Amino acid sequence: MTEEATKTRNRKKDKIPKVPNPDGIWTKEVRAEINHKAVTGQHRIRGMGVNMRYPNFDDLLVLPAQLSRLSVDTYREPCVTKTVLGTRFAKKPLEIETPIMISGMSYGALGKEAKTALAKATQIVGTSINNGEGGLLPEERDNSYKQVVQILPSRFGFSLETIEAADALEIICGIGAKPGLTGHLLGSKITEEIAEMRQIPAGLDLYSHPRHGDIFGPDDMVLKIQELRDITNYEIPIFLKIAAGRVTEDVKIAVKTGADGVVIDGCQGGTGAAPVVALKHLGIPTLPALVQATKALEDMGVKDEFSLIVSGGIKDGADVAKAMALGADAVAIGTGANIALGCTTCHQCHEGICGSGICTQEPQYRELLKCDAAERVANYITAMTNEAVILAKAAGKTRLSNLEREDIRSITLEACAMTGIPLVGTNYTFTERFGFC
Amino acid sequence: MEHLDITGKSIGETNRALRNLIADHDQVIIDNPHSSHNLGTALKGNGKVTINGSTGYFTGGFLAGPTLDILGNTGWYTGDNMSAGEIIISKNTGSNCGPSMMGGTILVRGNSGSRVGFAMKGGNLIVCGDVGRWAGYMTLGGRIIVLGEMGPVIGESMYRGIIHTADPAVEKKLGNNVSVIPISDAEKKEVSALFEKYQIDHPVNSLKSVIPLKTGRTKYTIFNPTHKVRSKND
Ligand SMILES: Cc1cc2nc3c(=O)[nH]c(=O)nc-3n(C[C@H](O)[C@H](O)[C@H](O)COP(=O)(O)O)c2cc1C
Question: In whole angstroms, what is the distance from residue B73 CA to residue A286 CA?
Answer without folding.
Answer: 45
